[in-house]
Each structure stands twice: as C-alpha cells, then as structure tokens.
Predict the 3D structure of the following.
Amino acid sequence: MNIQRPRGTFDVLPDEAARWRFVERTARRVAALYGFGEIRTPVFESTELFVRGVGEATDIVSKEMYTFKDGSGRSLTLRPEGTAPVIRAYIENSLGRREKPARLYYIGPVFRYEKPQAGRYRQHHQFGVELIGAASAFADAEIIRMLMHFYGELGIRGAAPVLNSVGCRRCRPGYNAALGAYLLGKAGGLCADCRRRAETNPLRVFDCKQPGCAAVIAAAPRVRDHICAPCGEHFGELLSLLAEAGISFTVRPELVRGIDYYTRTAFEIVAGELGAQNAVGGGGRYDDLVEMLGGPPAPAVGFGTGIERVLMVMREQGVAEPAEGGVEVGVVVWDPAALADGRRAVRALRDAGVAAEMDAEGTSLRGQMRRLDRRGVPFALLIGDSERARGAGRLKEMRTGEEREISLDRVVEELMGRRGRPAGAPGAPAAGGAG
C-alpha cells in the first residue's frame, strides 16, 4: 500500500523547518513588542461557532469547512479561521475582566477544503492577533502597522496595505438592499452561487471568482458610497493615522473580505509576485462579533497572515533568514576501544549546552568526516586509541582544517570560548555554524 499525504497538505522537512522557526520566532518577538500575549485554542470547535461567527452564507461555512460528528453525535468543525475561536475563549474565560483592551495572538493551523493554489493549502498556518475592547481608529492603525512591522522584520520588501470601509450594522442594511436589487436585475449574467448570494447575502458576490460574473460585479454599487457619517469619519481618521506613520496605502472600494463579521475597516497586505492571489495577510474590525457569540458588547480589530504565503514571498524575494545554530561539534570515533570516551564527551558537551552528536553505526573515519562536512558542522572532535590513552582528542575546525590536540576535560571550555570570538576571526567558527 502506497499511503501518501492528503491533497492540499505538505510535510515540513528539517531544512525547511528552520525557516518556519525563524518566522514563528519573529512573530512572537513582534507580538511581545506590541504587548500581545499568546493564546492557544483547540483545533476543533462546535460547528455553531463558525456558522454564527463567520456567516452561514460565506464560502467558508457553505463550502470549505471540515465538519464531523463525534461519538456523542455533536457536530464539530476543524477551525477554518482563527478569530472566532479566540473570541469564544475570550468570552468563556472572562478575559475582558482582566485587561481592557485584551491583546491576544496565536500561531497555529487552520483547515479549509478549497482548491490548492500558490501558498494556500487545505491545512495552512496562521499568525494572527486580536485587539479586543478598542474602538478607535488608532487601534486599527496600530494593528496594520504591527503587521507591516512583522513583514519588515522578516526582510520582505514592497508590502503595502489595501483598505476599504465596509460600514456597520446601522448603514450596511441599506447598502445590502441596494446591492441586492442591482444583482437581481442582472441575474442573467451571474453564476448560480451569485444568484443565491443576491438573495441571502449580497456582499458575498465580491468573493466570486467566476470570470462570467466579473463584469456585473465590477459595475455593482460600492459599500463606501453608502456608509454612515461615523463610519466615514472612522475611515478618514485611519487613513490620516497611516499617513502620519509613513505607511503608503491604496483604497480599494470593492474590498470586502470573505467573512461576515467585518465592520468598518477591512484591509489586506499585498506583497510579492503571486498574481491575482498576492495578498499575504489581512484583517479588519469586527465590532459586533463578541456580542454575536454571546458576550458583552466589545469592539475589536485584528489580522491574520498565512505563514506559507509569507515563506513563499521570502523565497521569491531571495530573503535569507539568519542561520540557526545546528550541531556544533561532531565527536568522531573509529576505534571501538574509544567508544565509551566518545559517549562521555558527547554527554559532557550537551550538558554544557553545546549541540553535539556522535555516529553510532560504526561508520569509517572518512565517512564520518564527509558527513560532518556535508552538513556544515563547524567542529570535529576526533578520539582514537592513541588520543584516548592520553585522555585527549583532536579538535578540528572544519572550515580551515586547523587541528590541535586538547584534553577531553577542556573541550567544553575551549568551544565556549570560541563562541565569543567575532565571526571571521582566526579560530572562529564558520558563518552559520556555532557562532
């Protein structure tokens, strides 16, 4: 039987995992800079959470969720997005009583049954933040700046926000009525999904990717022409704050995002050369979601960015993340009589915090050295019969070939001392090694 990974998923292998750790470390560091604390929610939740929170007429809920029944017949769903679970946890654990506003971030997988495409998978991973209890346009600007800061720390160039205001529950009904009337008058030019959306949730036609609907949608009324005065003032203040912060942006009147809970601000960050799918992250304001899910009224704003798409843009732009410290020294033993000494040396190195490994398969001296060289291990500690008799080993710097005998009792001290030398100095480890 040839069992393979499911379509739309992937394996993160050790070489690529180093890139993931770099992105995740950067996310945690930036989150800490902005005062956000980590939250971890279950990967599956009650299906009702997403039906009520995300919206029954959205593509996510109607087409893309992985839903199943557990042994007790309860309907559960693998989380298709990160915000609704965080809000559920915020309400259930009374986080609003501890801190206002609540600043929460998460990193984890989400699941959507959609057509795999560049940087989008059926299991993908998100870094997201939620600022709950803040109503001002300054909160929106801070969230956007935080996401831009994150991309900048990764070395991504040319990232830029695209924004729109999608109104609120006071002005949205009038727009929905105008949009629905327009779409019903153009029903002959719409796909079956858009004809259904025109009656149930007109705003969702902007999610359509059918070429045949494009002309009708392009001429549709725009939400910003129908927003109320407070929404207009909020959006205008946000644009002023972004300009004040030196962030260049574009206003796109057709931008609505694919989830029903958004109010007022909706935004995406575009970067890279991903074609029509060039959004690397996005978010917006969702002032009604806490109340919709049974909590007290609490305005909120947040973002989510796909780690896979971030990595794709980094590869496109040739961004090189800082090298991680891997194995710093390989203990090389080829004489069976010296194996115990080699094992003691490995234990001592690891106990001192020096990453070390030793071949356990009896590979030849030449084979062991080739493996260390191929993997870029900066040092080799060679222990043969003659060295063992003197309680010593030969410490070899792989980059230069420099080699000298050293007492096994002093190996840790020697390597720790070399760590403190500036990169490129005589005897310093090669770049990307132990330094």
Residues 392 and 409 are 8 Å apart (CA to CA). Residues 421-435 have pLDDT under 50 and may be disordered. DSSP finds 15 helices and 16 strands in the chain.
